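Subject: two folds for Thursday's group meeting

Dear M.,

Sorry for the delay on this. The cluster queue was jammed most of the week, so I only got both jobs back this morning. I'm pasting them in the order they finished. Each block is the input sequence followed by the predicted structure tokens. Could you check whether the formatting survives your parser before we put anything on slides? The first protein is the one we discussed after the seminar.
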Amino acid sequence: MEKDDNAISVKLEELRKNISDIDKKIIELLNKRAVLVKEVGRLKQKSGLPFYSPDREAKIYKMIEELPNGEFPKKSLKNIFREIMSASIRLEEPLTISYLGPEATFTHQAAIERFGLSLHYIAEESIEDVFMDVEADRADFGVVPIENSIEGVVHYTLDMFTNSNVKIVSEIYIDIHHNLLSKAKSLQEIKAIYSHPNALGQCKSWLKKHLPNVPLFETVSTAKAAKIAEKDSSAAAIASKAASEIYNLNILASGIEDKTNNTTRFLVIGKNIPKPTGNDKTSFMFSIKDKVGALYEILKPFYDNKINLTRIESRPSRQKSFSYIFYVDVEGHIQDKNLQDALSKIENLTVFLKILGSYPKSTYKN
């Protein structure tokens, strides 16, 4: 028996040595990569090119997706490369990312999902502040929510694009899982529940069943609710698991969202439109003349050019009563000839037309 134990110990030591040798090679290769990254950064700075390239990022993730299945999960590979790219961007230029805060909101999670942990982050109190940070060059990029699979579109984000010159440069999808957090030890101790109105709406059936008589209070974010719960042991917050760790709260119930397919789409905003990747999305907005068949005339050129519309949303215009602005997402890049043809044909049919951005389409899978 002792002989077998010795043999296992020897084999383990041998395997661990092999792993250590591989780890050293990985570190050596990462340092070689870093040298090349710095050279790329110098060339970008010299030519005035942006340091963050969503098209380049999309190609790396596509490369990972197309690899043969191996022992290492592709999702984990993506997470590893996200941090490699985050550290690489920091080597080129220490970028600043603004997001709808405070810390531990789902927007914060989306920002880290896209940019990794190596960059500098600014938590803002409003979506307007995020737009202003990017416009005023206080931040290189901003991250804002745009729509939820249950609650629908975030109208304030859409409205901000009307007068802002920022561009959409990327999109992120995050699965939303809500938790009931509190300093309390049980549901019976809860006297008030705080959260963002979208989170309250996404958990209303659970709340009605388990805490029907507890009053609900709206906050500007789920993390703000967690801050309130941190200071009041009779209060609870609906927020992320990360918020429980940051604000030292107990998780009284997890996964309390009413529907499991609860997903939020976020946008990354910046100053420049990324290059085409071959799998892109373009967003634009327009206002039409008030006449019969006006919307049909606008949509027909996209049908004729075989362009798929993935979303169309209307909002009341702030300029004129009972007039509307339409927001549209289509497949394709602004440099594609068929999309250019469709947009040129509708230009004279609109009161105004504004391109919001062309960017790599997310490969998100629920």
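Second protein, same layout:
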Amino acid sequence: MGLKGLVFDKDGTLIDFDLTWGPAFDAVMRHLARGDGERLARLMAVSHYVAEEKRFLPSSPLVAGSTDAFAPAWADILGRAPDLAFRTEVDALLARHGLDSLTPIGAPAALFARLAARGVALGVATNDSEASARAQAAALGIAGHCPFVAGYDSGWGAKPEPGMVAAFVAATGLAPREVALVGDSLHDLHAARAAGVVAIAVLSGPRRAAARAEVEPHADHVVDSIEALEALLDAL
């Protein structure tokens, strides 16, 4: 089986989730709490956030979910309406602070350049916002190799729904069996299955190797990180 297209999850796959989003969410929650310690503590509690370590517990709805997954709870704590304006504000803050602490896994720019040279179609499908994903893709140096970048707000739904993956397949003109989604969470693998593409799990998410038992039954292949992809492609 030859793979001609790869669509990548971003957080936990291309960038280190905790090192990128731990500091970013800390800054955003403090900004929104506006000095109210009680509200800040409640935001962190509902987000399953460990303030002392600037990281999330694996149970956090923020680890694999989109802004829609946590915005209602945040809005309630802040006395805000859980509407589009609030989500847009949160996404803008996250996009800005996410760039400040952006931490790649391996060397995505070099990897994407080599994959593109092999003729592999590349894309990104993330539950982050599209604007944030495009900004981070540019900062990582991969934007020139992946014209397809989709976020939860791009119109194709959020993972584990298959819309973003199906849209990538349609954009490339490839058959689903020629495409793989590379991701670290069950949301990614379920989206791959629903779209009929190959599911490749990477063990570079927040739980690292401890996630193997959870993801292995839902993946066609499991690798340690994106750095192992070329060897996998050569073996297929």
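Two things I noticed about the second structure. Residues 17-33 form the longest helix (17 residues). The chain has two domains: 5-16+104-235, 18-100.

Cheers,
T.
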